[in-house]
Amino acid sequence: MSWKRKLRDALVGGLAALALAQLVPCGHHHTNPPVTKEPAWDRPETRALAKRACFDCHSNETTWPWYSYVAPVSWFVVGHVDEGRAAVNYSEWDHPSEHASKAGREVKTGGMPLTSYLLLHGEARLSDAERDQLVRGLDATFPAPAH
Fold this sequence. Notes:
Blueprint: H1 3-21, H2 44-53, H3 55-58, H4 73-87, H5 103-108, H6 115-120, H7 128-141
Helix pairs in contact: 2-7
């Protein structure tokens, strides 16, 4: 078998696998449940920065890009949003998250937003000054519990 035929067969097989992957459901199918309550943000600027850098994964106001509808990428994206909402969901503050007090530290240390998210969402990249402002705002909005 020639290398050209092997390459063609591999491409056809890959495309067939990708087409079949579209039939596998990815969970919530890109839903945005209603916003029931937001936190009492310390300032409007904190909310604006959080909306820009955090809300796609940590709220019910996710903007679902076109690639989030294409398997297997859709499985990854929906999984990340589900995990993010489970950890901290700024749209369901009638059920506050115990993890919210760690949000400022996650942003400060570069743990959030995820690098994989920033690769495709340039608008979520914060300048050093914006990052510092968001960290201060998150720490003020969600103070660490007293021990």
